[in-house]
Design goal:
Layout (H helix, E strand, L loop, with lengths): L3 E5 L3 H24 L8 H29 L12 H9 L20 H26 L4 H4 L7 H26 L7 H8 L1 E5 L2 H6 L3
Antiparallel strand pairs: 1-2
C-alpha cells in the first residue's frame, strides 16, 4: 500500500491563473461557436463583444503569466522530457484501471509528469500561437489592405485555422476535466487547485521509478 503525503503544490497565483484562464477559455468557446452559427444563445453582436473582451483579457493574463514564470523560475516545470513518457501513457491507458501506482512521483519542483510537459509544449508552441495569430488577423481583417496582407492571406483559411485550433483547445479541456478525476480520490486534484495542497505518493519505490 502506498504511503500518501500532502504537499503544497500550487501557489496562490497559479490557482488564480488556472481558474481565470479556464473561465475565459470556456467563455470564448461558448461565444465563438455561437459566432460560427452552431446555436443562438447571446445573440451574434453580444457574442462577438464577449468573445473579443475575453480574448483581450486572456492575452493580458498570458503575458502576465509568462512574466511570472520567467521571474520565478517556474518555467522549468515545463521543460519537456521523453523519459518515462511511455510509462505514464501506459498508466493512463491501462494501469489506472487496475489501481496500480502512478509511475511518476510529483514534488513541488516537479509538478508535471513527462506526458503533461509534452502536451503543454504543444499548447504553448503550436496551438496557442495559432489561435491567437488567426484570431487577431480575423479581428483586424479590415486592416489587411493597409498592412499589405490582402493579397497574401485568405480569410477562409484564417477562419479554418482559428476554428480548428479552438476544437483542439476544447478537446484539451475535456481531457483535462477527465484527468482531474484520476487522483487518490475523484475530487483530490480539484481540491488541490482550490487549496494548493495535493496528496501525492510518498512510496520510495514509486519515487525510484520516476527517474528525471
Amino acid at each position: 500500500m502506498n504511503v500518501v503525503e500532502r504537499i503544497y503544490l500550487f501557489s496562490r497565483f497559479e490557482r488564480l491563473w488556472h481558474w481565470s484562464q479556464a473561465g475565459l477559455i470556456i467563455a470564448m468557446a461558448i461565444t465563438g461557436f455561437e459566432i460560427h452559427g452552431l446555436y443562438s444563445l447571446f445573440g451574434f453582436e453580444t457574442a462577438v463583444d464577449i468573445h473579443t473582451t475575453a480574448a483581450w483579457l486572456l492575452i493580458g493574463l498570458w503575458i502576465f503569466a509568462i512574466f511570472w514564470h520567467l521571474t520565478t523560475g517556474e518555467w522549468k516545470q515545463y521543460i519537456p522530457t521523453s523519459e518515462r513518457v511511455l510509462a505514464v501513457a501506459h498508466y493512463y491507458a491501462l494501469d489506472i484501471f487496475s489501481d496500480k501506482p502512478h509511475p511518476y512521483h510529483r514534488t513541488r519542483l516537479r509538478k508535471h509528469n513527462p506526458l503533461q510537459r509534452l502536451v503543454y509544449l504543444a499548447l504553448w508552441v503550436i496551438i496557442n500561437p495559432a489561435i491567437w495569430v488567426s484570431g487577431l488577423l480575423y479581428l483586424f481583417y479590415s486592416s489587411w489592405a493597409s498592412w499589405g496582407l490582402q493579397s497574401h492571406l485568405d480569410l477562409g483559411v484564417v477562419a479554418f485555422i482559428h476554428v480548428a485550433t479552438a476544437f483542439l483547445i476544447v478537446t484539451f479541456l475535456v481531457v483535462h476535466v477527465y484527468l482531474i478525476t484520476t487522483g487518490h480520490t475523484v475530487l483530490e486534484h480539484l481540491k488541490a487547485m482550490i487549496t494548493g495542497w495535493e496528496a501525492v505518493d510518498a512510496d520510495p519505490n514509486v519515487e525510484a521509478k520516476a527517474k528525471e
